[in-house]
What we know:
This protein is α/β, with parallel strands linked by helices. It has helices at 6-13, 20-25, 36-41, 73-80, 99-108, 141-148; strands at 2-3, 32-33, 48-54, 83-93, 111-121, 126-136.
Amino acid sequence: MVEHLELVVQWHRTSLLPWSSELVGDPRLRIVTGDFHALVAGAANSRYDAVLIDIDDAPDLLWHDRHAAFYESSGLRAVREHLAPGGVLAVWFATHPGPAFVAAASASFATTELMEIAFENPCLRQQETNYVLLARVPVYAERYWAVTGDR
């Protein structure tokens, strides 16, 4: 888990959230305080089965200008390099990410799906709609990239 805010990391480590103890107790989890965007831009020294992103960002509503590259094909391909064959990228959005981002994801991954999630927000006591984009690296990634010419 990469978290930018040390305070949020401490919430997990001190079990402030109801599910934190179980999460932090899982030996597969490593919590890193850092900048996700900078880590993804670096070399892919490890490959992961999944990259799950909840960054309160969107292509048209950036918290920082440096996040913009993530929403383009080059940024998505950088994330893809950190995924193992068959790996999945899941990105949560509070608003629709827009057709340009969905097209960039479709061009960068073998399959993509944008899901609309309607739910009752208990904090605001109202109905909300969020979106989750799922993108998958093909199981036979090296052969797929050789055929498509994309890497």
